[in-house]
Amino acid sequence: MRFLRECSIVFRRQIRMNLRNPAWVIIGMLQPVLYLLLFGPLLKPLISQFGAANAYTFFVPGMLVQLGLFGAFFAGFSLIGEWREGVIEAERVTPASRTALLVGRLTRDVLQLLVQAVILVGLGYALGMDASFGGMLLGVVLTVLIGGACAAASNALALSTKSEDVMAPVINVVMMPVLLLSGILLPMTIGPQWLQRASDFMPTRWVVDATRSLFGGDFSGHDIWWGTGWALLLFALALWWGTATFRRENA
């Protein structure tokens, strides 16, 4: 109970900060929505080549994973500001669990991601997406897991670098191959053989494939097991890294 209370205190403070300045939430939502509105129609003449029948049923899952990756990976920037303002230093003198300091922030990030995912899925349905409702719910769960992993990693990276000038290039370097090799915009099956083999080693590619299969109503494909396994593993590793970083920072 004490741990949950500590998480709740951190969460309430973080959510109040977001409500006072919702710009980051809006900006994080605009990119996938613009992709959906501007890039989605371009896929309609090509969708049969990807083995899909509906452009938005194919495209929305990729946008969900992109939202989880790109939106959550920038969560650590606010932590750098808190460190600079002395908030982290003030928290280190409290008896609060270091894990609670991270989980409270992660709860804020996951809630923000969930709201954005609901908006994105709702827009997809409005544009003609034909997705399994149960598969859509499971796909959103995968998105939340990968987003939570990225948010935890982002917080750990923020406390490690303590500089936006260092953190931003690191994120950009990581995000570029992730975006290209995960098949978020276009399936890797249309690429050359060497690129397909390279994408096999990209965990987020399996998460994207699993989310697309779930949206399509397939609940038994091997890619779903691979995607779910990778999402859980990445979340666990990122949570461990983030907790270890908070503990080291407050030692």
Automatic annotation (TrEMBL):
<keyword id="KW-0046">Antibiotic resistance</keyword>
<protein>
    <recommendedName>
        <fullName>Transport permease protein</fullName>
    </recommendedName>
</protein>
<keyword id="KW-0472">Membrane</keyword>
<dbReference type="Pfam" id="PF01061">
    <property type="entry name" value="ABC2_membrane"/>
</dbReference>
<comment type="similarity">
    <text>Belongs to the ABC-2 integral membrane protein family.</text>
</comment>
<keyword id="KW-1133">Transmembrane helix</keyword>
<feature type="transmembrane region" description="Helical">
    <location>
        <begin position="170"/>
        <end position="190"/>
    </location>
</feature>
<dbReference type="InterPro" id="IPR047817">
    <property type="entry name" value="ABC2_TM_bact-type"/>
</dbReference>
<keyword id="KW-0813">Transport</keyword>
<feature type="transmembrane region" description="Helical">
    <location>
        <begin position="55"/>
        <end position="80"/>
    </location>
</feature>
<feature type="domain" description="ABC transmembrane type-2">
    <location>
        <begin position="23"/>
        <end position="249"/>
    </location>
</feature>
<dbReference type="InterPro" id="IPR013525">
    <property type="entry name" value="ABC2_TM"/>
</dbReference>
<dbReference type="GO" id="GO:0140359">
    <property type="term" value="F:ABC-type transporter activity"/>
</dbReference>
<feature type="transmembrane region" description="Helical">
    <location>
        <begin position="110"/>
        <end position="127"/>
    </location>
</feature>
<dbReference type="InterPro" id="IPR051784">
    <property type="entry name" value="Nod_factor_ABC_transporter"/>
</dbReference>
<keyword id="KW-1003">Cell membrane</keyword>
<feature type="transmembrane region" description="Helical">
    <location>
        <begin position="21"/>
        <end position="43"/>
    </location>
</feature>
<dbReference type="GO" id="GO:0043190">
    <property type="term" value="C:ATP-binding cassette (ABC) transporter complex"/>
</dbReference>
<keyword id="KW-0812">Transmembrane</keyword>
<dbReference type="InterPro" id="IPR000412">
    <property type="entry name" value="ABC_2_transport"/>
</dbReference>
<feature type="transmembrane region" description="Helical">
    <location>
        <begin position="224"/>
        <end position="242"/>
    </location>
</feature>
<dbReference type="GO" id="GO:0046677">
    <property type="term" value="P:response to antibiotic"/>
</dbReference>
<feature type="transmembrane region" description="Helical">
    <location>
        <begin position="133"/>
        <end position="158"/>
    </location>
</feature>
